[in-house]
């Protein structure tokens, strides 16, 4: 049993100037926490960078601000 997917939203990317290294840092820390706590029953873990303040990558793709991001926007993963 358990969920098939877990969506982790990395917010405030605008404050980090959409730096990929900042996103990867958070992703690494959260992934390490899940592993340390034996939280492997989530299935696939998907990380999505967003900025709730500016609305970037919520319902429309990021675009030029983060050319390194190849995934979809948050709403793509919720549907």
Q: What is the gist of this entry?
A:
The chain has two helices and two strands. By secondary structure, the chain is of the alpha+beta class.
Describe the model.
This protein has 79 residues and is an alpha+beta fold. 28% of the residues lie in helices and 15% in strands. The chain contains two helices and two strands. Strands 1-2 form a two-stranded parallel ribbon. The longest helix has 17 residues, at 20-36. The model has no long low-confidence stretch (mean pLDDT 92).
Defining key terms:
alpha+beta, 2 strands, single chain, two-stranded parallel ribbon, 79 residues
| General form | globular
What order do the helices and strands follow?
EHEH
Helix content: 25-40%
Tally of alpha and pi helices: 2
Computed structural class: alpha+beta
**What's the arrangement of strands in the largest beta sheet?**
1-2
Gap between N and C termini:
21 Å
Over all CA atoms, what is the radius of gyration?
Answer: 13 Å
Strand content: 15-25%
State the low-pLDDT regions, or none. none
Global mean pLDDT: 92
Major beta sheet, specifics? 2 strands, parallel
Quaternary assembly: single chain
Number of strands: 2
Give the topology.
Blueprint: E1 5-10, H1 20-36, E2 44-49, H2 74-78
Parallel strand pairs: 1-2
């Amino acid at each position: 049993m358990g969920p098939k997917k877990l969506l982790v939203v990395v917010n405030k990317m605008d404050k980090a100037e959409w730096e990929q290294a900042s996103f990867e840092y958070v992703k690494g820390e959260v992934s390490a926490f899940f592993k340390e706590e034996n939280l492997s029953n989530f299935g696939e873990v998907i990380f999505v960078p967003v900025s709730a303040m500016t609305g970037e990558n919520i319902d429309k793709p990021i675009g030029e601000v983060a050319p390194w991001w190849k995934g979809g926007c948050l709403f793509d993963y919720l549907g």
